[in-house]
Specification:
InterPro entries: HotDog_dom_sf (IPR029069). GO terms for molecular function: hydrolase activity. This protein has helices at residues 24-39, 120-126, and strands spanning 3-8, 53-63, 72-82, 86-95, 98-111, 114-115. With 127 residues, it is of the alpha+beta class.
Length: 127
Amino acid sequence: MAVTWSAPVRYSECDDQRVVFNANYLVWADEASNAWWPSVGLTWDPDGVAGVQPLVKAAALEWSSSAVWGDTVDVVCDLEKLGRTSLTLRFEVRVGDRLCCVVRSTYVATTDGVTVPWPDRVRAAVS
């Protein structure tokens, strides 16, 4: 289930040319992921999700155009891939109909810092 998180681009997120600094796309993806978990019926809290701690294993960004100060970004988040111990979320950062960036973040399920399979409850919710 895709979920959209939106926010205005703040001046503090931009460089001197009023273009969004690249690291902020990861911040926005993280915000959208925090909205995605509840959208599939899972609660994200300081203890994790369904008894495991999802940790980011990898993130990749691919830019198409820039968001700038004064824009409103819409970040559409959806599951791209579910593995035994990992899942990848895909984020499309858009300004209106214009695609600015695609972010892919891969999370691994962990318990006490050790990678574990996703609990059946998580697998059922995201499948």
